[in-house]
Write a structure and sequence with these properties.
GO terms for molecular function: lyase activity. Pfam families: MmgE_PrpD_N. The chain is α+β, with helices and mostly antiparallel strands and about 450 residues long. Helix content is about 50%, strand content about 10%. The chain has 18 helices and 6 strands. α5 packs across α10. The longest helix has 23 residues. The chain starts with 11 loop residues before the first helix and ends in a 21-residue tail after the last helix.
C-alpha cells in the first residue's frame, strides 16, 4: 500500500507507536507477567462464557448470521471477528474477575487480550508474537487512560476502558499481525475516530459491559482495516480528544514492561471499589472476628468510586450483585468471597440477615486511591476500624490456582486444564497459539 504522509510535527500517535515498539525490549520478568495475564484472561473467559448476559449476546448474534473463520468460547458456531471478540471480551470482564490497571482505571485484559488472541491464532502467530502484542497493547491503553485522568474521568461521565479499549485492541492486533509504523498509526487513528465510554449517572447495568466488549471488537477491526490500506487522521487524540476528555494529565515515562507489571490480577469477582472491603473482611475473620455477629458496617470509599457501588439487598441481576457491598459481605461471611457463581445467583434468599450497611465518601482519600475505610460494630458493641487497599500482589502460583479453579467451574476436565497450563508455561516459545484454546469448552449453539 502507499501511505499518505502524516501531519507535520510529532503527534501523540508518534509517541504511542514508539511506546508500543519499545515493549519488544521488555525484561524477562515483564514477559512472564504478560504470560500470566494471558493465563488469567483465559480462565476469566472460560468462566464468563456461561454468564447469562454472554449467552444472550451470543443468541442475538444469530439475528445477523455472523459466519466466519472465528470461534468464541461462548458459541460453537462459525463467527465473524466482531462477534467472536465481543463475546470473549464480554466473558472476560462480566464477572468482574479480570485484570485492571489502577492508575489508568482500564480493565486491560478485556480490552487487549481477547481481540489479540483471536486474530493472532487466526494468523497462526506464535507465543512470542502474542506476548509482544499484549505488552504493546497494555502500554498504549494504560498511557491513554492515565493521560485522561484515570478515575478522574468518572466524574466527567467517562469510563476509560470504553473510551480507549479500541485503541488497546488495535495496537495489540496490529503488532501481532506485523503492521509497520505507518499502518499502526492509521489503525490507532481509525480506532479513535469513534470513541465511546459514556458512564451512567444511575447504575452501570449490562450495557456498560457490552459497550466495552464492542469497543475491543472495533479495535480489532481497525487494525485489519489499516492492514488493508485504510487511513485516518493522526490528530484525533491531540485536538478533538483533548476537547472531549479534558486537558491531559502528565504521565511519567515508563520503561518497557512497567505497564503490564502495574496491573492487578483480581481475586475477588466484584466491583473493584469493593475489593478493599472484601480484603478487610477477610483479615478481620482471620483475626477471629465473627462476621455472623456484626450489627453495623460503615464503609468509606473515595468519592469518585461511590457511583459504582450500592448496599442493595435485592438486585436486578448478577452485574448489580457484583456492585453491592451487601453481596460482598454475604460472600465473605459464607466463605465464598472468591466465587463468581455466588454473585451470579444474585439472591441473598435463605441466608442469615446482614448487618446494617452504609456507604459514605472518604474525602481524605488521596487522588487515585482505591482504599476502603471500614468501621465494623460487633454484637457486643465493640468497633473494629480498618483501612485496606485492594490486594495488589501477584504470585504465579496464585494466578495459576485461580486459572484451574475457573476452568473447573467452567466444566473443563483436569487433563485438558493441565494441557492448557503446559502451553502457558512455555508461552514465549510455542509456535502456534491456537493450542491455547481449551478444546472441551466451546458452548453449544445458544
Amino acid at each position: 500500500m502507499t501511505a499518505a504522509a502524516g501531519p507535520p510535527g510529532p503527534t501523540l500517535l508518534d509517541d504511542l507507536v514508539a511506546q508500543a515498539r519499545a515493549e519488544a525490549h521488555a525484561p524477562a520478568s515483564a514477559r512472564r507477567r504478560a504470560a500470566l495475564e494471558v493465563a488469567d484472561t483465559l480462565g476469566c473467559m472460560a468462566l464468563g462464557a456461561s454468564h447469562p448476559l454472554v449467552r444472550r449476546v451470543a443468541l442475538a448474534g444469530a439475528a445477523w448470521k455472523d459466519g466466519g473463520p472465528f470461534r468464541s468460547l461462548a458459541d460453537a458456531r462459525p463467527l465473524g471477528l466482531g462477534q467472536a471478540v465481543t463475546l470473549d471480551s464480554l466473558a472476560c470482564h462480566i464477572d468482574e474477575f479480570d485484570s485492571l490497571h489502577p492508575g489508568s482505571a482500564v480493565v486491560t485484559s478485556a480490552a487487549v487480550i481477547p481481540a489479540t488472541l483471536q486474530v493472532a491464532a487466526w494468523r497462526a502467530r506464535g507465543g512470542r508474537d502474542l506476548i509482544d502484542a499484549v505488552l504493546a497493547g497494555y502500554a498504549v491503553v494504560t498511557h491513554l487512560g492515565a493521560r485522561a485522568g484515570g478515575t478522574d474521568m468518572y466524574a466527567r461521565g467517562w469510563w476509560p476502558t470504553s473510551s480507549y479499549a479500541a485503541v488497546g485492541a488495535a495496537v495489540g492486533v496490529g503488532v501481532a499481525i506485523g503492521l509497520d509504523d505507518t499502518a499502526l498509526r492509521h489503525a490507532i487513528g481509525i480506532a479513535t475516530a469513534a470513541p465511546g465510554g459514556l458512564l451512567s449517572d444511575d447504575r452501570l447495568a449490562e450495557g456498560h459491559y457490552v459497550a466495552a466488549a464492542e469497543e475491543a471488537a472495533r479495535g480489532a477491526r481497525a487494525a485489519l482495516f489499516a492492514e488493508a490500506g485504510a487511513q485516518a487522521s493522526w490528530t484525533y487524540l491531540d485536538g478533538p480528544g483533548v476537547r472531549a476528555f479534558g486537558p491531559p494529565h502528565e504521565v511519567a515515562a515508563r520503561a518497557p514492561g512497567e505497564s503490564v507489571e502495574g496491573c492487578v490480577i483480581k481475586f475477588f469477582p466484584c466491583a473493584r471499589p469493593l475489593h478493599g472491603f472484601a480484603a478487610a473482611l477477610g483479615r478481620l475473620a482471620e483475626a477471629g472476628v465473627d462476621l455472623r455477629d456484626v450489627r453495623a458496617v460503615r464503609l468509606g470509599l473515595p468519592p469518585a468510586l461511590l457511583r459504582f457501588v450500592t448496599t442493595d439487598l435485592e438486585v436486578a441481576g448478577p452485574t448489580e450483585a457484583a456492585a453491592s457491598a451487601a453481596f460482598v459481605y454475604a460472600a465473605a461471611r459464607e466463605g465464598r468471597a472468591g466465587d463468581a457463581l455466588f454473585f451470579r445467583e444474585a439472591s441473598l434468599a435463605g441466608l442469615p440477615p446482614l448487618p446494617r450497611l452504609s456507604l459514605e465518601a472518604n474525602e481524605r482519600a488521596a487522588p487515585g486511591s482505591w482504599a476502603c475505610d471500614m468501621v465494623l460494630t460487633d454484637g457486643a458493641g465493640r468497633t473494629h476500624a480498618l483501612t485496606t487497599e485492594p490486594p495488589t500482589a501477584v504470585r504465579s502460583t496464585e494466578v495459576m490456582g485461580k486459572l484451574h479453579a475457573n476452568l473447573a467451574a467452567a466444566g473443563i476436565q483436569r487433563a485438558e486444564a493441565r494441557r492448557v497450563t503446559d502451553v502457558l508455561d512455555s508461552l514465549d516459545a510455542i509456535g502456534d497459539i491456537g493450542a491455547l484454546r481449551p478444546r472441551s469448552l466451546t458452548r453449544p449453539t445458544p
